[in-house]
Specification:
Length: 785
């Protein structure tokens, strides 16, 4: 090559980090290179994607700019590093095979819903994949749930056993094809197949199995359907009898069931869907979205009793689209196939063994699910998306951390558990694992941990757990750390909540954290949950947080029983507020039995089996018990959710109003020397009981109550600002799922000039705990070193 030509050429080495494997990134780069008339090579490796590119410098600049601006839908670029290389006069652009070398830092993609191109093929009688239930391409399809380890290549997935036919292989090998290196690529001839089996294990023959399954569902039967991250139990959502039968067989009576509908139009037929909710429903993650029901919709009342919302989601696997294709089915209950809080079933034999008493038939397939992954749940809260359950479609994408973390394992809490692995500037949260109360839960935890440690090749150098000594996760973490000689770090529950919210927004400066939730073990051994914490990450003070104020302690008569039976919590609160709980007025109010109340009353007076709590969730429970007569709950936070539900149409009170009679009292403490301030609900109870006996409409009472709680925490935070000069506030804890409360708090804080941070990428509830634990531990370890 002449020197003249070589001078005109430029060659650059480009390393891209992020989610760049299995998401159509290489064909995208290939196309860009061709369009910009550039030569070079691209390879996937364990460190990301490496590109060498050669040509005129203006073209290279255009290429680099388009690399960022035209990124494929499922890809996420975290960083691009460019260096100069000597031109070699290369011609053409090549894609070379994956290498498995060194440490893995490339993100593994999350599962993604069927894309528009694939959907068109699925429903096109002329296409070779017409009605093929497992079609996919680089822009869509299963990823995390079928992957054993990375790099994400077919032999490392459960597609390894299916050998591609010549037609599929040709697509897979063609850089210009949508299916170039689409690892789960398959068709009728070479890929996974369906089977339809009765509850007693007999194959149900049919010319078209999907058609036969539709007929069973339309006939009111319960089907177990194998999906992407596990089995669903499916019934016709418009059939009251079928839904009731599912509830009876599953022993779940109150918990709302998710409903899948054909498309956005069908969703709009059942619920009022805002623009934001429509956007959330149609993201590639396809979460279940909580939306307000339309009055008189076709959905059976038993689907979501006593609440004004429905959990709706759209089809995300080709099989789901096929179920709706002929229009016979309009809305399907699709609920995780498990018994109460057990992990979701994924294996065909396991599903048959566990679900044969529930399902009438099984619609299954022979592509193995390697990772259980429930559907994610999200909602628009206070105008922004909030994840309630982070699972399919989001896991295992990393959530950024605002400081470097050594390799860490944070095990989370107890209920709705999610653990996290951290390294460098990312935290990889596991899928929602459910409650860690028994061995089945612990088994799922271990299984997922092994998988995630393997996929990301993270060997923890420290283990982080909740402060609660009795949690199964704490016990497990301490033992695991001891066996490996690793430090085990305990982080207080509400501190972790607040840290999670701060970390999400990259906030490291001192912040006032409002942490409102059900249960968390406090540094004084009591049950916290209505907390105003001064949180200093990255501060000089190694104390991490100080408790500035909390809801006043009230007794929980019967301990954990008071969580399942909110009427006990109401007794605790009324007793604390100075009511004579044995009086006919209170017995009548709670529809309670005099002798039961006598027993509980004695427990509280003597302080026996009546632990003290500052929990905000329990305050909501108590109010729901009194206002709604919700004596017992069937699922977590049911009473509070119903209380939020009855006042959806009440106006928001953001200033002073007739509701001002509803108030909580701020009782200054001796902070920071001796004791935190207390926020007492006693005055509120007096107004509330008076209004109830005066027959004030219950929705109005509920609205006043929400407003009073928000005002009380804003007031306490103003006091905290006076004491500390801190003007920013982070809102966290499971009560932040409550839209009314979240909005009232945000508006209230902003009116007082606070800067407000709320959760978005991780759950404000216990699902976000492990992320916050990782943040606190990273901060501690950084200061120690
Ligand atoms: Zn596709
Ligand atoms: Zn094929």
């Amino acid at each position: 090559m002449s020197e003249e030509i070589q001078q005109k050429l430029t060659r650059r080495g480009v390393v891209v980090h992020g989610v760049v494997q299995g998401v159509g990134f290489r064909p995208f780069v290939y196309r860009l290179a061709l369009e910009e008339h550039l030569a070079g090579v691209i390879s996937n490796d364990t460190d990301g994607v490496t590109i060498e590119i050669e040509g005129e410098s203006a073209s290279i600049e255009a290429f680099l700019s388009r690399l960022r601006s035209e990124t494929p839908p499922l890809a996420r670029i975290d960083s691009v590093a460019v260096r100069n290389l000597a031109p070699i006069g290369e011609a053409g652009f090549r894609i070379v095979a994956s290498e498995v070398l060194g440490r893995v830092s490339t993100g593994i993609p999350a599962d993604a819903a069927t894309c528009a191109d694939c959907l068109r093929e699925l429903l096109d009688p002329a296409d070779r994949r017409y009605r093929y239930p497992f079609l996919n391409c680089t822009n869509c399809g299963p990823r995390f749930t079928i992957t054993r380890r990375i790099p994400y290549d077919r032999p490392q997935t459960s597609m390894a056993r299916f050998t591609m036919c010549a037609a599929c292989q040709a697509e897979y090998d063609d850089p210009a094809n949508r299916r170039f290196h689409a690892q789960p690529n398959a068709c009728w001839d070479c890929g996974p197949q369906l089977s339809l089996v009765s509850a007693d294990g007999v194959d149900l023959p049919a010319e078209d199995l999907v058609d036969a399954a539709i007929a069973l569902i339309a006939g009111g039967e319960i089907l177990a359907i194998k999906g992407i991250g596990g089995f669903h139990l499916c019934v016709d959502a418009t059939n009251e009898t079928a839904v009731m039968r599912l509830r009876e067989r599953k022993h779940r009576y109150g918990k709302p069931l998710a409903v899948m509908v054909r498309d956005l139009d069908a969703a709009r037929g059942l619920c009022e869907i805002t623009e934001d909710e429509a956007a959330l429903l149609t993201t590639p993650a396809r979460p279940i979205v909580l939306a307000e029901r339309r009055f008189g919709s076709a959905v059976a009342a038993a689907v979501a009793p006593d609440i004004p919302w429905l959990g709706l989601f759209l089809p995300y696997a080709p099989l789901h689209h096929l179920l709706f294709a002929d229009g016979r089915l309009r809305a399907l209950v699709m609920t995780s196939a498990n018994l109460s809080e057990e992990p979701i079933a994924i294996d065909n034999d396991e599903a048959r063994a566990r679900l044969s008493a529930i399902a009438d038939a099984f619609l299954m397939h022979n592509r193995e699910i390697l990772q259980r992954c429930d559907d994610s749940v999200a909602a628009i809260v206070d105008g922004a998306p909030q994840l309630i359950r982070r699972a399919r479609g989001f896991v295992p994408l990393g959530v950024p951390l605002p400081m470097d973390a050594p390799p860490l394992l944070a095990v989370g809490g107890h209920l709705k558990n999610v653990f996290a692995l951290a390294r460098g500037r990312f935290v990889y949260q596991s899928q929602h694992l459910g409650d860690l109360e028994n061995l089945t839960g612990l088994e799922f935890f271990r299984e997922s941990l092994d998988h995630l440690m393997r996929t990301f090749e993270i060997e923890p150098a420290a283990v982080v757990h909740d402060l609660h000594p009795g949690y199964l996760s704490t016990e497990w973490a301490k033992q695991w750390a001891a066996e490996r000689g690793l430090p085990a770090i305990a982080v207080q529950h509400h501190h972790a909540h607040v840290a999670a919210c701060m970390a999400e927004h990259g906030v490291l400066s001192p912040t006032i954290g409002i942490s409102l939730d059900g249960t968390g073990y406090g540094t004084d051994g009591r049950i916290w949950g209505g907390e105003v914490l001064i949180t200093r990450l990255d501060g000089e003070d190694p104390g991490n947080f100080e408790r500035f104020a909390h809801l006043d302690y009230v007794p929980m008569p019967g301990g954990d029983a008071a969580v399942r039976e909110p009427w006990r919590m109401a007794l605790g609160h009324l007793h604390h507020a100075g009511f004579d709980i044995r009086s006919p007025e209170i017995l009548n109010l709670l529809d309670a039995n005099a002798s039961d109340v006598r027993v509980l009353s004695r427990m509280m007076e003597r302080g026996i089996n009546a632990p003290l709590t500052s929990s905000c969730g329990r305050l909501f429970d108590a109010v729901a018990a009194v206002v709604l007569g919700r004596a017992e709950v069937d699922y977590d936070a049911q009473a509070a959710i119903e209380l939020e539900g009855i006042d959806v149409h009440e106006p928001y009170e953001t200033g002073e109003s007739d509701a001002s009679a509803y108030k909580l009292e701020f009782m200054a403490g001796n902070w920071p020397v001796r004791e935190p301030a207390r926020i007492s609900a006693s005055p509120l109870w007096r107004t509330l009981v008076r209004d109830l006996s005066a027959n004030v409409p219950k929705p109005r009472i509920a609205a006043h109550f929400h407003a009073a709680v928000a005002r009380a925490f804003v007031h306490a935070t103003i006091e905290a600002r006076k004491a500390t000069g801190i003007g920013q506030v982070a809102l966290s804890g499971g009560c932040m799922h409550n839209r009314r409360l979240a909005r009232l708090l945000r508006v209230g804080f902003e009116a007082q000039g606070f800067q407000v941070f709320e959760h978005c990428a991780v759950s404000p509830g216990d699902g976000g705990l492990s992320y916050g634990q990782a943040m606190v531990a990273a901060d501690l370890l950084r200061r120690k070193s």
